[in-house]
Structure formats: structure tokens, C-alpha cells
């Protein structure tokens, strides 16, 4: 069962998305801020990270940069999630090291397609 690290500070969003992902066969672990995301990416060996960009403390872009500093996470797929849909927001997330970008509210079929594309043979 592929393990997804869901980094989301909003409890309602976290609950809704995790239940939907679990129904699709993914194990979901959580981080509620950027610092915890960096720690969990290092300690829990997720197969993929869903990274909210608008986090308290260090934001999702900085957390992504810190995750990428760990050589063990060089190939870890990270999908940015944000309510900001401007092309500059996507460019900022990709520059930080995100492999893909998706907007909120979440379109689950679209997000699942992105997850499956980044986890070939796992999802």
C-alpha cells in the first residue's frame, strides 16, 4: 500500500482528503506544518508528498526545499496543493522542488491521475 504524506494545516481538508485517498488504497500519514513535514519525510519514508503551500511557520515551498536537501529524498515525488491558481504560484512551487501542482478545491480524479503518474507500478 503506497504511503502518502499529507501536509495540511486545515483539519477539515485533511480529514476529507485522507478519507478519500484511503478509500482508493493509499495509506495516509499527516503533518500539520512545514517543520513537521520535513521531519516526517525523513523519518516515515513516504512514497509521495501532498504539500499544502500556505502553511503556518515555514510555508510549503520552504518545506519542500528542506525536504530536497536530504539526499534520501531526492527522488521523492511532491505535489503542491494550493488555493492560488496563478501561473506564478505554480512556477514558485516547481522552483522549490515540487514535481507537480494542483489547485484547491481538490478535483479528486485529477489529483489521483497526478499521483498515479508519479507512482508508476505502485498506485
Brief summary:
With 123 residues, the chain is an alpha/beta fold.
Strand content: 15-25%
Shape: globular
Order of strands across the main sheet: 2-1-3-4-5
Level of helix content?
Answer: 40-55%
Given helix and strand content, the structural type is alpha/beta
Q: What's the total number of strands?
A: 5
Mean pLDDT: 94
Write structural notes for this entry:
There is one protein chain. Helices cover 44% and strands 20% of the residues. By secondary structure, the chain is of the alpha/beta class. A five-stranded parallel β-sheet has the order 2-1-3-4-5, sandwiched between helices. Strand 1 (3-7), helix 1 (11-23) and strand 2 form a beta-alpha-beta unit. The chain is globular.
Topology (SSEs and partners):
Elements lengths: L2 E5 L3 H13 L3 E5 L2 H10 L4 E5 L7 H10 L8 E5 L4 H10 L3 E4 L4 H11 L5
Parallel strand pairs: 1-2, 1-3, 3-4, 4-5
Helix pairs in contact: 2-3, 3-4
Which key terms come to mind for this protein?
globular; 123 residues; five-stranded parallel beta sheet; 20% strand; alpha/beta; 5 strands
Amino acid at each position: 500500500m503506497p504511503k502518502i504524506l499529507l501536509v495540511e494545516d486545515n483539519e477539515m481538508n485533511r480529514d476529507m482528503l485522507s478519507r478519500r485517498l484511503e478509500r482508493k488504497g493509499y495509506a495516509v500519514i499527516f503533518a500539520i506544518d512545514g517543520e513537521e513535514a520535513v521531519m516526517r519525510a525523513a523519518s516515515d519514508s513516504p512514497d509521495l508528498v501532498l504539500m499544502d503551500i500556505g502553511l503556518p511557520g515555514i510555508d510549503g515551498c520552504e518545506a519542500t526545499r528542506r525536504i530536497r536537501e536530504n539526499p534520501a529524498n531526492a527522488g521523492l515525488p511532491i505535489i503542491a496543493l494550493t488555493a492560488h491558481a496563478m501561473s506564478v504560484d505554480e512556477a514558485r512551487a516547481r522552483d522549490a522542488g515540487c514535481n507537480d501542482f494542483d489547485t484547491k478545491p481538490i478535483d479528486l480524479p485529477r489529483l489521483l491521475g497526478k499521483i498515479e503518474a508519479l507512482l508508476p507500478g505502485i498506485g
